Structures are given as C-alpha cells and as structure tokens.
Amino acid sequence: MRFLHTADWHIGKKLNDFDLLEDQQAVFEQLVTVAKQQQVDAIVIAGDLYDRALPSEAAVATLDHMLVTLNRKLNYPLLVISGNHDSAVRLRTGRSWFSTTKMYVNTQLAEAFTPVELGDTQFFLLPYFEPFAVRDYFQDATITNVAQAIRPIVAKMKAQFKPDMRHILVSHFFAAGSDHSASETKVNVGGLDAVPIDDLAAFDYVALGHLHNHNALHAEPKIQYSGALLKYAVAEAKQEKGVYIVDTDTMARTFIPLTPQHDLIELKASYAELTDPDFYRQQDRDAYIGVDLTDTQVIPNVMAQLRKIYPRIISLRRENGVTAVKPLKQRQRDLDPLSLLKNFYAEMMQTDLTADQLKWAKAGLGEAESGQKQ
Amino acid sequence: MRFLHTADWHIGKKLNDFDLLEDQQAVFEQLVTVAKQQQVDAIVIAGDLYDRALPSEAAVATLDHMLVTLNRKLNYPLLVISGNHDSAVRLRTGRSWFSTTKMYVNTQLAEAFTPVELGDTQFFLLPYFEPFAVRDYFQDATITNVAQAIRPIVAKMKAQFKPDMRHILVSHFFAAGSDHSASETKVNVGGLDAVPIDDLAAFDYVALGHLHNHNALHAEPKIQYSGALLKYAVAEAKQEKGVYIVDTDTMARTFIPLTPQHDLIELKASYAELTDPDFYRQQDRDAYIGVDLTDTQVIPNVMAQLRKIYPRIISLRRENGVTAVKPLKQRQRDLDPLSLLKNFYAEMMQTDLTADQLKWAKAGLGEAESGQKQ
C-alpha cells in the first residue's frame, strides 16, 4: 500500500496577527491533489492538527472541512494522533463515530496498543505523551523521562506485531539526534526529553510529527518527520515544506514539495536598501517577511514605513542593535517645552523643525499652557 | 413510533461555582433508564446541549460520553439541534460522521428543510436562529423578527410534507403565550421576539427547547417544551423536571419526572430560624439552596456561617433589605485606631471586645504603630 505522511498543520496559527487560515486551506488543496496523483491508500497526520488547545470557531470549521474532504468525500482512511499543541479531549470528541468511516483518531496512550490494520500494514498510532502518563499506565515509578517511557511502549507494541505485516509507528515527539526548529519549545536537544532513535528499530517506518523540518532526520533511513504544512517561523524560511509518500512494498519514501500561496522569507538589508525601488522590485513582496535591519540608528515609525512596501512583515530584527538614545541630561530637565521638542526632533529626524513646524509647535504649546492656567 | 423529547441540558453549567457535571451525569443515567423502560425508537434533544459556546474540556468529555452512550452503545437515533447557548460551529463538528449512525445534528437553518424520516414520522430539525439569518436565506428584507421569520420557514417545510406521515418540528425558540423562566434572556414575552403558536398549526407535534419549564405551554395540545434536565435557577425551584414520551400513533404525550441527585430549593426564614436545629433538621440540607433571609440587620460573615449548615447555598437574598450601616461620622475620623476598632466590633457583633481580644488588639496596633515609626 501507499500512504501520505503529513503532520504539524497548526490550523488557526497566526504569524504576528496575520491569519493563516486561507494559506492553510490553499496548501491543503495541493495536498489533496498530491494524494490523488500519488494514488495513496491512506493519509497519516502525525499530530498538531490545531495550533492551540482551544482553537477558534474559524479554525474548528476549517479543520472539520479538511477532514470531511479527505475522509467523507474522498474516502481516504485517516490515521490521526494528537500532538502537544492539540487538546486531546477536544480532538477526540466524536472519535467513536469517526472510526465508522476509517478515520482513526488516537489521543490517549492506551489506544496506541491496538494497531489499525490497512492492507499489508499495522499502524500503531501513539499520540503525544508525557512521561508521567506512561509511568501511570505501566505502573512503573522508575519512568521519569521520554527516553525511559518509550521502551515499554515499543515492547508492548511488538507483542502485537503480526510477522507477515509491515509495522509502522505514527507519533509526535522529539527523536534524539535531529536538528531543532525554532518553533518547538520545552525540548532539550539530545537530552532526556528525547526518544533515542535506536529504540525505534523494530518498526519498518516511523512517521513523526513535532519538528517542522522534514530533513531533521535526513540520515535516518526509517524514521522521518514530514515537516509542517507551511513555514511557521522565520527560522523555517529556508526549509522546503511538503509531504512524504511511503510505499510499504519497497518502504521507499518520496518527498513531494507543496507551494504556499505566500512564501515566508527573511530579508537582511539596510533601511535605505529596503526602500530603494531597484532593490524591492526584485523581492517577493507578497511573502511573509522577517526583516533583519542592518542599520544602527533609530528610524521613526520603521515598521509602518516598511509595510507600505512589504505588506506582510511579521518581524523586525536589528542585526547590529540600535545605537542607544542618549539619556535625558539633567540640564535638559530645565529646558522649556519648545526647546525640548526642537532637540528631540533634531535627534530623531536628523534635521531641524521647519519654519511652519516651529510655528505649529509654538501655537500648540501655547494652547496647552493657557489650558493649564484656566 | 415512540420518541423521548428532552432539551436544555446545559452541560457544564455551574450554580454559583458549584460544578453540576456529576449531577448532570446522574440524571442522564435516569434518562437512559426511562428511554429503555419506555422502549422509545428515537431521542430528540431540542437545543442548549452545552451551557456555553466555549465549553470546558470536562463539559466536552461529559457530553461526548452521553451521546456515545445513547447513539453508539444503545443505538438510539438522535435528533439534535443547537440552541442559543451552543456554538453552532463547535456543536456541528463531526456531523458528517454522526449521521452514519443516525445521529442527526442540525445547526444551520438550511439543514432544517431536509426532514429526517424515522418510521411513520418526518422530523424537521430547526436549530436556534436569528431573524437576520432567515432574511438572508430567503432574500426577504421585510423579515426583521422571529414572528415574521417563522412563516416562510414553515411554508418551506410544508412543501416537504408527505401526507401519509406524521410531521414533527424540533426547535429552540420562545413561543408566544408561555410563561417565562428566569434563566432565559433577551426575550420580550409575547412581543415580536416570540413565535406565534398559531403559525405552528401544521405540525402534529412541536418539540421545543429554550424555556426550562415543561408546563410553559400546558394549555397547548401539540406544542411542548420538555423543560430542562435539572433545575438551573432558584426561579425553577418549584418546577418538576423530566422528559416527555411521545407516541406518534396516538400523538399522546406523557411526562416522566426525573429525580435529581441534589434538589434545588428556596428557603425563606430568619437567620435565627435557619440556624436552629429544630428548623434545619427538617430541611433538605443536601439541596442547592437559594436563601431568602428575612432579617434586616447586618449579620457578619452570614454566607460562611450558613454554609456550615447548608453546604450548597447558591444565593442569598434579603427579603426585606438590609438596614443601612450608619455612615462614618466626621467625629469618628478623629478617633484613635483602638477606639475605632472597639466601636466597629460592637456594631458588627453586638457585643464588646473581651478582655483578651482587647489585649491582642492593643498589642497588634502597638506593633503596627512602632513599625510605622521605624
């Protein structure tokens, strides 16, 4: 059989207040096209379907539409687990009905030991878990981290293995040895919070979610992150996003890239370059952009100015820091308001007030002063 | 056929911070027993399954368990609509799967015009609606209230009527002429925000939710509120709660009461009576209680005192108001702290400080004073 492996959809995620639902819907339609073209028999979604435990109504409606499309309209069996971003309780609501049409949604550890059998393959759907849940489940007080937790889990799964079938683990955790995307938290790289990949050797393939980089385990022949559906952080700007197609006859895996409606890029330049038409006409100005500004001086209202040219700036970083504004000198405290304003304007704008501006400033300050005296 | 008519479960509702999930689960089990004893063929739930648009995880898990029990374990067809307390989007998530096992969940107006046919009966499941949604749906700008909105809705339903079948409307609105429970809001009794019962004459039975009193339309032979699952407000203390069993052969309806784990009662008495063992030993002290206190003087810490005897007090009302505490006199502002404390204590407790209390007060005030001076 052939299946599509995806994960980390993060439906409902926003990038600096930019709502991504449309982008997510658009790339999902590409995923559907890939599933059809590749004639897959099932689709694996390895956790973090939602971005938040409490998704918005719009996010709920969007994910529901996607799952209805895949399972109810196109009749793909779906193999789904919850990730650390999902609420297990909310995601599992309705699972008793979902399985009637081969949509399997596991959100509890105990469910992982009953494999779903499709064609020649046993799928073990192991949701995101905390070590204490494994300790409770196996009544083993020595389990305090995921590295210890994974061993009894795999042992119990192996007891269910049918020797003439393929054995595939679907899960959502950090596997030791991989790179680490900026979008993940609470993970100590290579430490006790990681699953050692050697402990997963029993499986023909391990379809993972959690890390957003599909190349995170590029050296591993049998363990794979699909990566996220879209680039969800500036740190992911250089990563290609897509899905894996896995063939259980040969265990060959093929990465199929997906093209987002709007890319996510990083631009490192000075303010003068960024606002120069010769520069910006060569840029993908439709993209979500993380700007890395090389200037050191203060630039007033810089985000609003740059967004006139690049409407989807999601972050602004200062490569070289900002030259500190000089602290207010004691002497300045004694200046009259108009002199203070003139000094401040000159410092910020590197030019003096014009004659008109000076007139307006005087008039404004005069009003304020007479208002105080009334 | 025979069906059970219930509504207004309000799963997740709290009464003054008392979590009702256990009470709701307990009365639900009685509902299941009634369904079995009465050998019903289907169960109608006429809206407000949840208490809030954004229910807690615990509420989500509880309702899911109830629906799984009725539909997946006991195989009852379920006819469900959203009420004004439900989020239509959240409640409908999964409906595409639910209908595979005859659980019909309608939350959108457009869905109301495709009847569900069970046995000899066509069920029209009309979710709670706002007039503007009906105006949009029928492209009729003259529709501005529910009284106008119901007419094209019923006309369109009648066009679907099969003459040899029963026609039952399931909905969630305020029908003109009924009493009005304190738990409902935004309803002008008998006004434009009500559906005139004459406009519902086409149906053999109208199974309503919204009002919590099952007797709200006691004079109507064919239109019925089931009432809520439990008493959800002090104003409902005298109402019996239960479900209707409707037989579509005879259109007979029978009210079957349910007995809550904890009743909800109102107690009107003085503080002296309420704290008198001869009185309180005769009361249902396990009940949720709305206390209507007849005293007029200030009683210090009255709620905490009464809850020692009646642990589930949900409200405290003053039948006769409270004698106003005298405003602080100018003279008192000049009193020393110890005199102020003595006066305050005497006024609140109607007795003077004991010698010990006076000693502690002096010591405490002395410490505070010396602290200030350091």
From TrEMBL, chains A, B:
GO terms for biological process: DNA recombination; DNA replication. GO terms for molecular function: 3'-5' exonuclease activity; endonuclease activity. Keywords: DNA recombination, DNA replication, Endonuclease, Exonuclease, Hydrolase, Nuclease. It comes from the Bacteria. InterPro entries: Calcineurin-like_PHP (IPR004843), DNA_Repair-Maintenance_Comp (IPR050535), Metallo-depent_PP-like (IPR029052), Mre11_N (IPR041796), SbcD (IPR004593), SbcD_C (IPR026843). Residues 1-212 form the Calcineurin-like phosphoesterase domain. Gene3D superfamilies: 3.60.21.10. Residues 261-348 form the Nuclease SbcCD subunit D C-terminal domain. Belongs to the SbcD family. NCBIfam families: sbcd. SbcCD cleaves DNA hairpin structures. These structures can inhibit DNA replication and are intermediates in certain DNA recombination reactions. The complex acts as a 3'->5' double strand exonuclease that can open hairpins. It also has a 5' single-strand endonuclease activity. Heterodimer of SbcC and SbcD. PANTHER family: COMPONENT OF ATP-DEPENDENT DSDNA EXONUCLEASE, NUCLEASE SBCCD SUBUNIT D. This is Nuclease SbcCD subunit D. It comes from Lacticaseibacillus rhamnosus (strain ATCC 53103 / LMG 18243 / GG) (Lactobacillus rhamnosus).
